Amino acid sequence: MSCNNCGHAGSFVLLVDLAALVTLDAPANSGESPDAKSDDRCRRREWSLTAQCPACDSSVVASTATSVLSRAAATRS
Question: Taking the complete model, does pTM exceed 0.85, yes or no?
């Protein structure tokens, strides 16, 4: 595993990016449930994994983020 930008080899940073859409839509009456459209928007989430070089902050590395995660998991067991 090495950085395609600066040539660094060895340890890399695993970036986990999480995003969730949070709405403030609330039912007018406490006994009412929000409409389906509002309910769907409350559940929208996105995430991504990226491997990043700690030397130059580049994400152009000769490996995938999942292999970095696998290496991290293997060292913990």
Answer: no
